[in-house]
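--- STAGE predict ---
source: upstream dedup step, 1 unique chain passed
mode: sequence only
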Amino acid sequence: MVGPNPVLSVRPAEVADAAAIAAVHVAAWRSTYRGLLPDDFLASLAEAGYEERWRRIIGEETSRVYVAADGPEVVGFASGGRERAGEDGYGGELYAIYVVQEAQSKGHGRRLVQAVVAGLRELGLADMIVWVLRDNAGARRFYERLGGTYVRTQPITIGAALLQEVSYGWRSLDAIGY
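--- STAGE serialize ---
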């Protein structure tokens, strides 16, 4: 039996990870949302702006942020915390989860969700919701494989694009099937 790859890891993010998280954020948006968002919008994404944002978020400690690494290289991240929009029945939220395209399908996503769930439990939360673009079929399959159930759809504007996003929920963190 082959054990887990020792160079693949997930750990809490540190402020020093902000630049690496920003690089993953921009790269993952450009590959994930190609064809879903306008090309000029994706081209306009700047790592510097995201770096400052992630530096602030990690420093505030009101949410939980984790990075996935392949050896020393950060290849993904996830964040979560208290549900932000007042969605009935959910106290926790998976805010973001991105893995660079080259590092997908290696288990980083599942490990990042496990880390966020542990962070939600630290915050005393017992359930979780996540929002995903309706047309992001790969992400939707990922959440469905984890046992997420459809909650609802709502419009969202990103750049100049009016899109639909879908939410998946878990009424109990224990129901997530990694």
